Amino acid sequence: MFDLMVDHIHGVNLGEGVQRLGGNKTKYLRVLLSFLNNQSDQMIFALTEPEKGENIMYACRETAENVGAEDIAQQASLLENKYKEGQKVTNKELQGLMELINHALADFNQVVNSTLDHIEKPQEPAAAHEPLEQSALDMLKELEESLHNYDVGAQDKLADISKSLPDWVNQMEEFRQLQEAVNKFDFSIAESHLKHLRDKAG
User: Per-residue confidence at 117, pLDDT binned at 50, 70, 90?
Assistant: First the structure.
């Protein structure tokens, strides 16, 4: 497991992040990796759908603060305020945020190489399955609308949906990431996971 006194991830306060997750280093690594990996999609959404920029930066800032990614949180906060005030956010500014994320991810990969054996890997689904029934797809579509509208009831809705989905869907990595994001109320990130889940399971 990584050593808080030795290991370093650019712009990330490892000690604070672990403390925020109750001292569980393995859980912290998984949450941090999920956050860093998912920001590429989110920055693309911010580029192509600027009307969502404020919500995307809000979710990025909130999660970054929760994992101790101080530099990322600070930059996301600046861009969030610009979106909120109706100012134009340039591609260069978004690229600057992505450079912070990529730098942290590169450092993370170096740190995590020595810890991968200690991280419980989710069970992989079987190679082939019957496509989801239309009723299940409809429920996922309804959940997507709730996430898009930042409906706080999305958490309960996901819990109900999971009871109706086949076990192989509940075991998918995309579904685990979706649950994690919804439980943290990171609805922009959750919406991205849900789209990946529908594409893969549909």
Answer: very low
Q: Please give the full DSSP string across 77-143, using - where no structure is assigned.
A: HHHHHHHHTTPPPPHHHHHHHHHHHHHHHHHHHHHHTTTGGGSPPPPPPPS--PPPPHHHHHHHHHH
What are the chain's domains?
14-118 (1.20.120), 134-201 (no CATH)
d(C-alpha 143, C-alpha 195), whole Å: 11
Helix (H) or strand (E) segment spanning residue 198: helix 187-201
Residue 187 carries which side chain, given as an amino acid letter? Answer: F
Q: What is the pLDDT of residues 33-66, one digit of tens each?
A: 888 888 877 888 888 888 989 999 999 999 999 8
Distance (Å, rounded) from C-alpha 155 to C-alpha 176? 13
- Which tokens hold the place of 16? 């604070």
